[in-house]
Amino acid sequence: MSGIWNDFNSAQSNTNVIPKGTLAKVRLTLRPGGFDDPSQGWTGGWARRAATGAVYLDAEYTVLEGLYAKRKIWSLIGLYSPKGPEWANMGRGLIRGILNSAHGVSDKDNSPEAQLRRRISGFGDLDGIEFIARIDIGQDTNGEDKNEIRAAVTPDHRDYAALMGAVVPQSAAAPAQGHAPQQSTVASQSGQPASAPGVAGRPSWAQ
After folding, report:
1. If pLDDT is split at 50, 70 and 90, which confidence band does 14 have?
2. Per the domain annotation, does 13 fall within a domain?
3. Which of 89, 131, 172, 174 lies in disulfide reach of 168, CB 3.0 to 4.6 Å?
4. Residues 6+ apart with CB under 8 A from 131
5. What is the pLDDT of residues 72-86, one digit of tens each?
6. Region annotation Disordered: residue ranges (predicted)?
């Protein structure tokens, strides 16, 4: 005897993780951590300091459109690790990408206007910013898959304009030829979070 109620190998997986490489328009919300260091430009109470000495921004991303609308992803933006500069460099790179994506600036654009758009007066400028994210998958402290955001999509990507829902400014460079787009939607309409909040899944150099 066989049938869909006898053989479940073809059943849809009930994993709650958005597939790796999915592109989505998101809104970034920073959850204040209360740690300031004016010498580093960390003011306003946005940064958070872990017991290990690592400093980061506690970021919550809400998917705004598409099949994953209203899903939330919690991820960290590294500012400092006592183990070395790698985590901070990744954090700065992510913020650069977020600003490029939000303001429609090509990563290749080094004009004065583009440089101005990559400057902020403080981390509060990032709170509420909307951009196109490439969703990744990491692991929490229990070894379970969880969504993370490690990169933003800029106007150099040929799917940027459609996902952003706006005309790309003239300052943005033309899409790179031969750049294969990532899938931007995969069937799911769950309103549940994509991953649990907190600091689980922090990279080893931030421990």
Report:
1. low
2. no
3. 172
4. 25, 26, 28, 97, 98, 101, 102, 152, 153
5. 999 999 999 999 999
6. 171-207
In this structure, what token pair is assigned to residue 48? 């958070």
| Residues 54 and 85 sit within 8 Å (Cβ to Cβ) | no
pTM: 0.76
The 10 Å Cβ neighbour count of residue 182 is 15
Torsion on CA atoms 134, 198, 61, 81, rounded to nearest 10? -60
Q: Domain containing 128: what range?
A: 23-194
CA distances from 122 to 40, 51, 127, 168 (A): 11, 24, 10, 26
Q: How far apart are CA 92 and CA 35, in angstroms?
A: 18
Which DSSP state fits 137?
A: E
The residue to which tokens 């010498």 are assigned: 39
Total structural domains within the chain: 1
**Over the Cα atoms of the chain, what is R_g?**
19
Q: Return the SS3 of 36.
A: strand
Closest alpha carbon to 146 in 181, 82, 192, 87: 192
Q: Is 68 domain-assigned?
A: yes
Give the mean pLDDT of the chain.
83
Q: Is the pLDDT of residue 150 over 90?
A: yes
Task: Please list the alpha-helical segments (H only) found in 52-206.
Answer: 86-103, 112-117, 160-164
Residue 137, in any domain of the structure: yes
Beta-bridged to residue 172, according to DSSP, are none
With residue 139 as reference, give the H or E element that holds it.
strand 130-139
**Total number of residues shown for the chain:** 207
